[in-house]
Amino acid sequence: MENVLRPMIVVGGSVLLTLVIGWATDRLLRKADERHGETPLWGLLRRARVPYQLVLCAALLRGSYDQAELFEDHRVGIGRILTLTLIGSSAWLVIRIAGAVVETTYSRYARASHDAARVRRVRTQVTLITRVVAAIVGVVAVAAMLLTFPAMRAAGASLLASAGIIGIVAGVAAQSTLSNMFAGLQIAFGDMVRIGDTVVVDGEWGTVEEITLTFLTVRTWDERRITMPVSYFTSKPFENWSRGTPQMTGIVYWHLDHSAPLEAMREKLRDILRECPSWDGRTYTLDVTDTTPNTMEVRALMTAKDADDVWTVRVTVRERMIRWLVLEHPYALPRVNTADATLPGSRASLDGGGNRRAVADPRPDRG
After folding, report:
1. Quick one: DSSP state of residue 193?
2. Which of 49, 55, 50, 61 lies closest to 13, judged by CA?
3. How far apart are CA 64 and CA 56, in angstroms?
4. pTM for the whole structure
5. How far apart are CA 356 and CA 367, in angstroms?
């Protein structure tokens, strides 16, 4: 009976104690979260309850397993499994706690700052720092797991002796990966591009959605995702519309007849912009920028507070101006000249469709 009760008491007690401590800790964190709603730290720490309970259970079982006298023939293997579980769950818990602290710090900064560009910069840095911390903790945890095996400790000297050659081979083999990792750190702390920035890469307009140490994801205007290596942004030119101030100037072109009423168009542009909520009210202009034998190029400039608003202003001005010209000044639209050339001794007349045509002079030759 003792051989049955002892394992049940040890194992069951460890599991029960883990559940009780985990429940009590979760209740305390929940009350702290309700009492201090201005900070998300306590709510974020509640996400770590699973690795927290794993650490408690593994630690209790590892410390009391010898007294359980269960599976005596496999004591070493079970002890090693518990040790590996304890190391892995501890690393998981550290990553969750570090992520909660970093996220809380960022949330406080985002609420206190009124500079959207700086907030996006900090967000990018926080994201990459969290990934670096997770990678470092993961590597340390794997190394600690490997050191629990005696064969690994015995082979340490030979591994250190060959570390130089292995490092050179790994560096050559992973040259692209390493360059992307360093490029990711350069982007994070060099303020080249940030999460939420509006960029144009390879002719595609979109918003930076995710930045990691090796790749960057751009969400295009039509909801596609373009995944690119971060080294692209450190080696090739690209447009960052959110760099500096988010204010932008939009351009709209029309190709019109030379008789287009420019002054009336300027007044109409002013009226359109005043009715458009996306226009920031800074400035607008309308000028003739080029001419051809048949048309002239008219350019309108207008400002907006960011890339989204400048797009809305451009399409609004283009559509409403064309509609106004069609209704009020149709002669200003470009036309194709289909008249025949007037021959010597001929006079021009209009056909039934309103087009000019050459008509022979009916007068006899007096010569």
Report:
1. -
2. 61
3. 12
4. 0.47
5. 28
Q: Crossing angle, helix 262-274 and helix 307-328, to 10 degrees?
A: 130
Residue 29 near residue 92 (C-beta atoms within 8 A): no
Q: Phi/psi of residue 207, each to 5°?
A: -120, 135
Task: Map 234-250 to HEC letters.
Answer: HHCCCEECCCCCCCEEE
Q: Please, are residues 181 and 170 in contact by the beta-carbon 8 Å criterion? A: no
Over residues 16-69, the pLDDT tens digits come to 888 888 888 888 888 887 787 667 777 778 788 888 888 888 887 777 666 656
CA–CA distance, 79 with 84 (Å, rounded to integer): 9
CB–CB of 151/87 below 8 Å? Answer: no
Which contiguous run of DSSP H or E holds residue 24?
helix 2-35
Tokens of 58: 């593994």
| Tally of helices (H runs) and strands (E runs) in the chain | 12, 10
> DSSP states of 166-188 as a string?
HHHHHHHHTHHHHHHHHHHHHHH
Which residues does 338 contact at the CB level (< 8 Å), separation at least 6?
355
Q: What does the chain come to in residues?
A: 367
CA separation for the pair 59, 93 (Å, rounded): 13
Q: How does strand 198-201 pair with strand 204-211? A: antiparallel
51: phi > 0 → left, psi -120 to 50 → alpha, else beta; which?
A: alpha
DSSP assignment string, 250-307: EEEEEEE-TT--HHHHHHHHHHHHHT-TTEEEEEEEEEEEEE-SS-EEEEEEEEESSH
Residue 266: pLDDT band with limits 50, 70, 90: very high
**Nearest Cα to Cα of residue 228 among 211, 251, 240:** 211
Angle between helices 116-147 and 175-190 (to 10 degrees): 140
147, 158, 162, 235 from 155: Cα distances, Å: 10, 5, 11, 42
